[in-house]
TrEMBL record:
The lineage of its organism: Bacteria, Bacillati, Bacillota, Bacilli, Bacillales. One of its GO terms (molecular function) is ATP hydrolysis activity. Signal peptide: none annotated. CDD domains: ABC_Iron-Siderophores_B12_Hemin (cd03214). This is ABC transporter. PROSITE patterns: ABC_TRANSPORTER_1, ABC_TRANSPORTER_2. Residues 3-235 form the ABC transporter domain. InterPro entries: AAA+_ATPase, ABC_transporter-like_ATP-bd, ABC_transporter-like_CS, P-loop_NTPase. Keywords: ATP-binding, Nucleotide-binding, Transport. It comes from the Bacteria. Gene3D superfamilies: P-loop containing nucleotide triphosphate hydrolases (3.40.50.300).
């Protein structure tokens, strides 16, 4: 499933937040959006998954205009893990994850054996199968995040949009989540704050700066000391790690005497 975003522009009042952004994501690619706080990453994603409506531009999923697609059809094609996940009612963990199946079912259809298997596998993949009967509200921040990831996995879409998917997770689960998502082999567009994780998992990266695409390309070409200084204002030492053969960034304190 491929996504083409063309000339997307979005404003809050008179303030332009996203300015003429174009993204091309090929089938099976894992693409990261990186950029400083407030650069517009979430706003771009929300315009694609339609929590916000762009002023101009379009998003095409396999050539089909997303803004003209029914919500149900969109949910069958795109799984979304947003940054704000306000849950108003308390549900058991397994009920929360089972909600991921709803786009595939009729209004009052009972869960099939297949649905239950998919839900169980999603619980297992995220390491929360032993929490299935616990109320969601009683979980820690990281456990809640794993439930939300399990729900999007249970949705079984070919395209995932993830906004800070490993927010709240300890490093073990961050790696596990990225590994699991990569293993799915689906197309992914994810906003990622951790630059080393972006380097490890992304095929390509878009650097977002002040609402625009600053640079785009493979992690090795994008995550350079110069770009990190220009965009984030940070000093780094960037090398290719001998084991992973991926970019490894060491952050340098400002007052380091070199
Ligand atoms: N309702 C709003 N009215 C005005 N400005 C807004 C509104 N919502 C967001 N913004 C501004 O839009 C800009 C982009 O926000 P966005 O959440 O897309 O950034 P981000 O790159 O995802 O940031 P972060 O890394 O902090 O999550 C920010 O400056 C934010 O203050």
């Amino acid at each position: 499933m491929k996504l083409i975003v063309e000339h997307l522009t979005f404003s809050h009042g008179t303030k332009k937040i996203v300015d003429d952004i174009s993204l091309h994501i090929k089938k099976g690619e894992f693409v990261g959006l990186i950029g400083p706080n407030g650069s517009g990453k979430s706003t771009i994603l929300k315009n694609i998954y339609r929590t916000l409506t762009p002023v101009s531009g379009q998003s095409l999923l396999d050539g089909e205009n997303l803004y003209q697609m029914s919500r149900r059809k969109t949910a069958k094609k795109i799984g979304v893990l947003g940054q704000e996940n306000h849950i108003s009612f308390d549900f058991k963990v397994e009920e929360m994850v089972a909600m991921g199946r709803s786009p595939h079912k009729g209004l009052f259809t009972i869960d099939t054996k297949e649905d239950r298997n998919i839900v169980y596998n999603a619980l297992k993949k995220t390491g929360i199968e032993n929490m299935a009967k616990i109320n969601y509200m009683n979980l820690s921040g990281g456990e809640k995040q794993r439930v939300l990831i399990a729900r999007v996995l249970a949705q079984e879409t070919d395209f995932l949009i993830l906004d800070e998917p490993t927010n709240h997770l300890d490093i073990n689960y961050q790696l596990q989540m990225f590994d699991s998502i990569r293993e799915l082999g689906v197309t992914v567009l994810a906003a990622i704050h951790d630059l080393n994780l972006a380097a490890l998992y992304c095929d390509r990266i878009y650097v977002i700066h002040k609402g625009q695409v600053y640079k785009a390309g493979k992690p090795k070409d994008i995550l350079t000391e110069e770009t990190l200084l220009e965009v984030f204002g940070i000093h780094t030492d960037v090398a290719i790690h001998p084991i992973t053969n991926k970019v490894a960034i060491t952050y340098l304190p400002r007052n380091l005497n070199r």
